Amino acid sequence: MKNMIKVHAPEILDYSGQEYTRVSFWPDYRRFGMEDLNDDVVSLMVKLVYDVDGSAGKRCKVLLNGKHLGLNGFDDYVKLMTLQ
């Protein structure tokens, strides 16, 4: 396997609206011996999005699949992670 030896150029589109960053990816299932993303992997990715939202505070709006997670700062994140 060549891993990241062969890559495609990034697709950068012109945009004139409000600034934002969007991250999208398409996993190489064959490379990782998978047919799809199992529940454990999806849960880990969702947890990482909550981590970003909890640590970003009000500096940026974090969405997961188009929906806000409902965290309004680090205090909400801590409460969620400690189930208080």
Description:
Helices cover 32% and strands 5% of the residues. With 84 residues, it is mostly helical. A two-stranded antiparallel sheet has the order 1-2. A hairpin with a 2-residue loop joins strand 1 (63-64) and strand 2. The model has no long low-confidence stretch (mean pLDDT 85).
Helix content: 25-40%
What letter string, H or E per element, gives the SSE order?
HEEH
Overall structural class, as computed from helix and strand content, comes to: mainly alpha
Give me the number of helical elements.
2
Beta content comes to under 5%
Low-confidence stretches: none
The value of Rg in angstroms is 17 Å
- Strand order within the widest sheet? 1-2
Number of E strands:
2
CA-to-CA gap between the ends? 46 Å
Provide the residue-averaged pLDDT: 85
Largest sheet: 2 strands, antiparallel
Total separate domains? 1
Shape: flat
Question: Keyphrases for this structure?
Answer:
single chain, mainly alpha, two-stranded antiparallel ribbon, 2 strands, 32% helix, flat
Kindly summarize this structure in a few lines.
With 84 residues, the protein is mostly helical. It is built from 2 helices and 2 strands; from the N terminus they run αββα.
List the helices and strands and how they pair.
Blueprint: H1 39-56, E1 63-64, E2 67-68, H2 74-82
Antiparallel strand pairs: 1-2
